[in-house]
Amino acid sequence: MENNKISVGLDIGTTKIVAMIGRKNEYGKAEILGIGKSKSLGVHRGVVNNITQTIQSIQQAVQEAEAEAGLKIEDVTVGIAGQHIRSLQHSDYITRANSEVVIDEEDIDRLINQVHKLVMLPGEEIIHVLPQEYKIDGQAEIKEPIGMYGGRLEANFHVVVGQVSSIRNIGRCVKSSGLELEGITLEPLASANAVLSQEEKEAGVALIDIGGGTTDLAVFKDGIIRHTAVIPFGGNVVTEDIKEGCSIIEKQAELLKIKFGSAWPGENKDNEIVSIPGLRGREPKEITLKNLSKIIHARVVEIIEQVYVEIKNYGHEEQKKKLIAGIVLTGGGSQLKHLKQLVEYITGMDTRIGYPNEHLAGDSDDDIASPLFATAVGLVMDGLKRQERRRVEKEVEQMEHVVEEHSEDNMTHEEEDVIQQPKKERKSFLDKLTERVKDFLDNAE
Question: Which side of the chain, N or C, has fewer Cβ within a 10 Å radius?
Answer without folding.
Answer: C
